[in-house]
Structures are given as structure tokens and as C-alpha cells.
Amino acid sequence: MCSKRCAQSIEYVVRRMAEREAAAHLLHPLPAALVESPITKIFIHVESCPWCGWTVSAKSPNAGLMPLREMRILHGSERASQGSATLSALACESLTARSLLILALGLERGTGLLTFSFVTRSVAWARMLRNSAESAIADVVARLDASEAWADELLGVRPPSAAVPISKPPYTLPASTRHSMNVLLHIKNGRTGQRNTAETFSRIRNSLHSHFITPHLNDVFLDSLNRVYEQWRLSKVAISLDGRVVRK
Q1: Which of 6, 7, 116, 240 could form a disulfide with 169 if both were Cys (CB 3.0 to 4.6 A apart)?
Q2: Pairing between strand 42-47 and 85-90?
Q3: What stretches in the chain show pLDDT beneath 50?
């Protein structure tokens, strides 16, 4: 169990992560988003989920992984084209267009970091737990924070403590995640053998909630941290919009 001092330390890190995502939400969409047939700049490498086992195939697609037209899922041994970014994501999660603006902006500006690969927080969390299952939650959250600190200079966010070394690639995308509605609908169809109704669609949509790490976590302490995260992120966005601070 985390002590009061430990919890306060984690909350500080979680607020910084929330501030990072809030700043990324205020980035301006690029003109490429308006192009009829944009060049593919972000390639998605899909990983099977270690929690639910979901994987992407022709029979179980996940449209939630491609919110932008300049994106494409890599298949088999296929490699991303030169000058593009590769993002690893879990097969069952959903990405938003706004969460990917920072990668698109980095590519547009020719940021050197964009030559490396990236992972979603869900993928980063799963790998960290797999490699150090006995680590305390505070340590894993701190490493997750450090793995996305590459974005701080671009976003103008306070960096992690010098005591936490900036991680090496792959870097983490500073964005919350949620279950893909597309995947949940496929799962329900497989169980019932029936087509989805408008009522089913609405019920599943209303059940989707974002989490700052991964939609599969069912932990009271991490749920409390998620509430801290969401409140801080919303307050930062509201303050910036009220002051008309929109990053370009």
C-alpha cells in the first residue's frame, strides 16, 4: 500500500502527465488534415493485448486505431517509410486525432526525435510491468512519465526531476486511452450472434471512459489517480482557453 507521502509524490507526477496531454490538445491541426489524399506519415504497429488477448485481423479490424487519414496499420514484416513515425498500440485500444497531433507536428517541423518509434501508454505500461513485475506503482508511473518527457520542449511543459533520467526510445505518446468501440461491438456480435441495435450502440458508447494509462486497469488506487489526472487536465485546458493560449 502506498503511503501518504508516496501518494502525494505520484499525484505530482500524474499532474505533470495531465499537463502534458492538455498542452498537446491545444495544438493546431496541420493543413495536411485538409488534403484529399494525404501522404501516410504515421504507421501503426498493432500489438496483441496482454490483458484481453485481442488482436487485429481482417475478421477483427479496429478502426479506432486510425483516426487520421495519413495513418496506416503495418502488416506482418512491413516497415514504415522513411521520414515517418511508427506508433505501437494495443489491438483493443482507441486513439483520437487530437492525441496524434504532436507526432504530426513533429514530423512537419522535422524534429529529430520523430525518426524513432513510439508507443501508447498502454503498450509502455504493459512492457514495463512485464519487465519489472515486482516494481512499485510509483516507480512504474515515474518511468512512464520520463518516457514521454521528449514532448516537453515542444509543448512548453515542466520536465521531470533530474533524478529521473529521460528514457531511450521507444518514446511514449502523452495521451490517455480507452477501449475501442469497434472492438467491443465485434466482441458482442461474436457472443450473441446478433446485429447491434441503436440501443446497443448507445449503451456501449456511454460505457466508454478514458484512462490515463490503460482501459484494462481495475485498481482502486489507479482509478483515484485517474480522477486526479482528468481534473487537472480539464482545468489546464480551461485555463488556457480562457486566456486564449493555443499552441502552434
Answers
A1: 116
A2: parallel
A3: 163, 192-193, 245-248
Give the count of beta carbons closer than 10 Å to the beta carbon of residue 240.
16
* Other beta carbons less than 10 A from residue 149's beta carbon: 22
Cα 169 vs. chain centroid, distance in angstroms? 16
Q: What is the pLDDT of residues 153-209, one digit of tens each?
A: 888 777 665 545 556 778 999 999 988 766 655 655 555 445 656 565 566 555 567
Closest CA to 94 of 72, 116, 66: 66
C-alpha–C-alpha distance, residues 233 and 127, integer Å: 25
Cα separation of 198 and 218, whole Å?
A: 28
E strand intervals along 135-241: 171-172, 178-179
| C-alpha–C-alpha distance, residues 177 and 47, integer Å | 15
State which H helix or E strand residue 90 sits in.
strand 85-90
CB contact at 8 A, 214 and 122: yes
Dist CA 85 CA 137 (whole Å) = 29
Nearest to 56 by CA among 95, 17, 85: 95
| H-type alpha helices, 31-117 | 101-109
On the CB side of 146, how many CA atoms lie within 13 Å of its CA?
Answer: 16
The model's pTM is 0.82
Domain ranges of the chain: 4-242
* Phi, psi for 179 (deg, rounded to 5): -65, 150
CB-based contact 18:233 (threshold 8 Å):
yes
Backbone angles phi, psi at 48, to 5 degrees: -65, 140
